[in-house]
Automatic annotation (TrEMBL):
InterPro entries: ATP-dep_DNA_helicase_RecG, DEAD/DEAH_box_helicase_dom, Helicase_ATP-bd, Helicase_C-like, NA-bd_OB-fold, P-loop_NTPase, RecG/Mfd, RecG_dom3_C. This is ATP-dependent DNA helicase RecG. It comes from Thauera mechernichensis. It catalyses: ATP + H2O = ADP + phosphate + H(+); Couples ATP hydrolysis with the unwinding of duplex DNA by translocating in the 3'-5' direction. PANTHER family: ATP-DEPENDENT DNA HELICASE HOMOLOG RECG, CHLOROPLASTIC. Residues 461-607 form the Helicase C-terminal domain.
Length: 672
C-alpha cells in the first residue's frame, strides 16, 4: 500500500486490516438486478443497462457531458456536469454500459444526473450481494475501500470472542457471520432493514462495541483502585468549622454527597468521582468541604473552572468561607499581572498556600503544586480530555491526586452507564429551600417592544434583569442581534435605568468591575454574552431575557435560566426566537418551555444531540461510540456491563483480545 493511500486511510482512523473489518457501511445499493429503462421509477435508485445511442459535450447552459442510453423498453439521458475526457471515450456510441443512479424527470424525458457508469459485455453477470457504501474521505473512492475490505475479510482470522451461551441468550449471530452479512449482504435482505441498524448482524456489532467500551472503562476503574494516592482522613477540624459558621443548613443531598466524597478521600487510592446536580443545587459547598479535608491534613487542593468569570466567582465565594477559618486561597488566571501571578506561584510552590482556584492557567508548566492531593474540575465537559489528564499529572510525589469533577449538566442514566462507567457518581437531587420556581415564556422577536416594557417594569419595581445575546459583533452570515447593538438599543429605550455590558472581549478587570456592580445592585440591566452561563449568583435578578434562543443548546438555555430564581421573588425567563424555526430549534424550545427538571432536559438533549457532543467527545478526537445508539440500544447496556465484569474476572485473555480488536492503541483517551 502506497504512503498516499495509507495517509488517506489514516484520516478515517484505519491503520490496518482489523480496522477495515470494523469500518462498517453507511448504506447499500442494489446492483443485483437490472430494471428495464421504461420501468425505472422517478425518485428511486435503479440500475439499467443499454446501448449508447449518442454522446456529446454540450456547452449550454453550461459545459456538460450528455449521453443517450437505450434498451428494448425505452431510452433515458445521462448527464455529467463534471467529467473527464476518459468518460466520453467510455461512452462511445454503440458501447454497452450499466448505469446506477436516481431517475428523475428532465426537459427531454427521464434522466440520470452523475450516475455511476461501467462498460459491460452483453449477458455479463450481476453481483450476488448488495453493494456497500462506506464512510470515506477526499481522494479515497468506494471501489478502493470495497477492495481493501474484501481483502481483509479473506486474510484476517474472524475469531469468535464472545461466549456461546451469551450469544444464545441475547439471540446474536457469530462475529464472522455478522461481518459478512454487513459487508456482503445477500440480495434477499432489504437495504432498509440494514440501514435502520436493527438487523441482527448490526445488533451483534453494537453489543460488542458497548462491551469493549465497558471493558475499557471498567479496567481503568480497577487500575485506578490499584494505584496509590495520599489518604486524607476526615478529621473534621476545618469541615465542621465551616458548617458551624454557614448562615444556612446544607440539604440532605449535599450532606450525602459530602459523606461519599469524604470516604473516598480517606482511602489510599485515587478518587475519581463525578458530582452532578442541577443549576443551583449547591455543588460549590460540597467541593469546598472536600478541599478543606485536604487542607486539614496539610495537603493542597486546587479547583479549575473553564472561564475567568466563573473562576473569579468561585474565588470570591470560597474566600468568604475559608478566610474566617484562617486559610488563604490563591487565584491563578491568565489575565493576572505577571508580578502578582509569580508571587502567588512561589507561595504555592513553597506550600505556604494550600488552596487554589484558577482557569486552565493551573495546568501550565510553571505551576508547581508540590503537595497537590485533590483536583476539582468544574463544568468538566467544557475541558478537553488532554487538559483533564494534564491536571491529573500534577499530583504530589508522582502520585495521582484525588479527582472531583462537577457538572451542572445532569447526565442521563444510559450515558452515565456507558461514557462515565469508570467514575463514581454523586447526585445532588434537591434544591436548597427558598428557591422559587422559574416561569418560562416564548416570545417571537416581532414582540421585542413588549419585552423591553416588561424589563422596565421589573427594574422600576426594584428587581434586576439579564439580557443575553449569542454574538459579540455583527456577522453578515447570521444576522443576529449582537450584544453591543442590544446594549445601545436598551440604553436608548430605558434612559431611566442603569444598563451594563459584559462579553468575552472585555479585559478581565472591566468584566469583573461590571459583574461586581451588577451584584451590588448598582446596575439594573446586564447585557451579556454567554460568559454569564455558569456560576453567577445575584438573588435580586428575577428576569432573564435570552435573545435568539433557538441558537442555543438545551444545556446552555437551562444554565442561563438558572441565573434567576435565586431569591424569594417569582422569576421569569423570556426566550425570544426568530422565525422560521428549524425542526431542531422548535424541538429544543418546546423542551425548555415544558421542563424545569435538569434530568428531563438532559434526556431530551441526549436524544436531540447524541452522546458525542453531550460529553465533549469531539475534544478527544475519538468517537465514544461509532455504531451503538444510547437511545435505540439501551437494552444492550446492562448485558454488556455484566459480561464485561465476567470477562475481567474469569477470562481476561478474551477481554484483551476484544480490546485489541476494537481499540488498538486508542484506549487511553477513553479513560479521561
Amino acid at each position: 500500500m502506497g504512503s498516499q493511500l495509507a495517509a488517506r486511510l489514516a484520516k478515517l482512523d484505519l491503520r490496518g486490516p482489523r480496522d477495515l473489518l470494523l469500518h462498517l457501511p453507511l448504506r447499500y445499493e442494489d446492483e443485483t438486478r437490472l430494471t428495464p429503462i421504461a420501468s425505472a421509477r422517478p425518485g428511486w435508485p435503479a440500475q439499467v443497462e443499454g446501448e449508447v445511442v449518442s454522446c456529446e459535450v454540450v456547452l449550454r447552459p453550461r459545459r456538460q457531458l450528455v449521453a443517450r442510453i437505450a434498451d428494448a423498453s425505452g431510452a433515458l439521458v445521462a448527464r455529467w456536469l463534471n467529467f473527464y475526457p476518459s468518460q466520453k471515450q467510455q461512452l462511445a456510441v454503440g458501447r454497452r454500459v450499466r448505469l446506477f443512479g436516481e431517475v428523475r424527470g428532465g426537459f427531454f424525458g427521464d434522466e440520470m444526473v452523475h450516475p455511476r457508469v461501467r462498460a459491460v459485455e452483453a449477458g455479463e453477470g450481476l453481483p450476488e450481494a448488495l453493494t456497500p457504501v462506506y464512510p470515506t474521505t477526499a481522494g479515497l473512492g468506494q471501489a478502493t475501500l470495497r477492495k481493501l475490505v474484501a481483502r481483509a475479510l479473506r486474510s484476517e482470522r474472524l475469531d469468535e470472542l464472545l461466549p456461546g451461551d451469551w450469544l444464545a441468550q441475547l439471540d446474536l449471530p457469530g462475529f464472522a457471520e455478522a461481518l459478512k452479512a454487513l459487508h456482503c449482504p445477500s440480495p434477499d435482505v432489504s437495504p432498509a432493514d440494514l440501514e435502520s441498524r436493527q438487523h441482527p448482524a448490526w445488533r451483534r456489532m453494537k453489543f460488542e462495541e458497548l462491551l469493549v467500551q465497558q471493558l475499557s472503562l471498567r479496567r481503568a476503574y480497577l487500575a485506578r483502585r490499584a494505584r496509590s494516592a495520599v489518604p486524607l482522613p476526615d478529621t473534621r477540624a476545618l469541615t465542621a468549622a465551616l458548617l458551624d459558621v454557614l448562615p444556612f443548613a446544607p440539604t440532605g443531598a449535599q450532606r450525602r454527597a459530602a459523606a461519599e466524597i469524604a470516604a473516598d478521600l480517606a482511602a489510599p487510592h485515587p478518587m475519581q468521582r463525578l458530582l452532578q446536580g442541577d443549576v443551583g443545587s449547591g455543588k460549590t459547598l460540597v467541593a469546598a468541604l472536600a478541599m478543606l479535608q485536604a487542607a486539614e491534613n496539610g495537603w493542597q487542593a486546587a479547583m479549575m473552572a473553564p472561564t475567568e468569570i466563573l473562576a473569579e466567582q468561585h474565588h470570591r465565594k470560597l474566600a468568604a468561607w475559608f478566610e474566617p477559618l484562617g486559610l488563604e486561597l490563591a487565584w491563578l488566571s491568565g489575565s493576572r499581572r505577571k508580578r502578582e501571578r509569580e508571587a502567588e506561584l512561589a507561595r504555592l510552590q513553597r506550600g505556604e498556600v494550600l488552596l487554589a482556584v484558577g482557569t486552565h492557567a493551573l495546568l501550565e508548566d510553571p505551576v508547581n503544586l508540590p503537595r497537590l492531593a485533590l483536583a476539582v474540575v468544574d463544568e468538566q465537559h467544557r475541558f478537553g480530555v488532554r487538559q483533564r489528564l494534564a491536571l491529573r499529572e500534577k499530583g504530589a510525589f508522582g502520585q495521582r491526586p484525588h479527582m472531583l469533577m462537577m457538572s451542572a449538566t445532569p447526565i442521563p442514566r444510559t450515558l452515565a452507564m456507558t461514557h462515565y462507567a469508570d467514575l463514581d457518581v454523586s447526585v445532588l437531587d434537591e434544591l436548597p429551600p427558598g428557591r422559587t420556581p422559574i416561569r418560562t415564556r416564548l416570545v417571537s422577536d416581532a414582540r421585542r417592544d413588549e419585552v423591553v416594557t416588561r424589563v422596565r417594569a421589573a427594574c422600576l419595581g426594584g428587581r434586576q434583569a439579564y439580557w443575553v445575546c449569542p454574538l459579540i459583533e455583527e456577522s453578515e452570515a447570521l444576522q443576529l442581534q449582537t450584544a453591543q447593538e442590544t446594549y445601545d438599543t436598551l440604553v436608548a429605550a430605558l434612559p431611566e435605568l442603569r444598563v451594563g455590558l459584559v462579553h468575552g472581549r472585555l479585559k478581565s478587570d472591566e468584566k469583573s468591575a461590571t459583574m461586581a456592580a451588577f451584584a451590588a445592585g448598582e446596575l439594573d440591566v446586564l447585557v451579556a454574552t454567554t460568559v454569564i452561563e455558569v456560576g453567577v449568583d445575584v438573588p435580586n435578578a428575577s428576569l432573564m431575557v435570552i435573545e435568539h434562543a433557538e441558537r442555543f443548546g438545551l444545556a446552555q438555555l437551562h444554565q442561563l435560566r438558572g441565573r434567576v430564581g435565586r431569591g424569594t421573588v417569582e422569576s421569569v425567563c423570556i426566550l425570544i426566537y426568530a422565525q422560521p424555526l428549524s425542526q431542531t430549534g422548535r424541538e429544543r424550545l418546546k423542551v425548555i418551555f415544558e421542563h424545569t427538571d435538569g434530568f428531563e432536559i438532559a434526556r431530551a438533549d441526549l436524544r436531540i444531540r447524541g452522546p458525542g457532543e453531550f460529553v465533549g467527545a469531539r475534544q478527544s478526537g475519538v468517537p465514544l461510540l461509532r455504531y451503538a445508539s444510547l437511545e435505540d440500544d439501551g437494552d444492550l447496556i446492562d448485558p454488556a456491563r455484566e459480561l464485561a465484569e465476567h470477562l475481567l474476572a474469569h477470562e481476561p485473555a478474551r477481554a484483551d483480545a476484544l480490546m485489541r480488536r476494537w481499540l488498538g492503541a486508542r484506549e487511553g483517551l477513553l479513560q479521561a
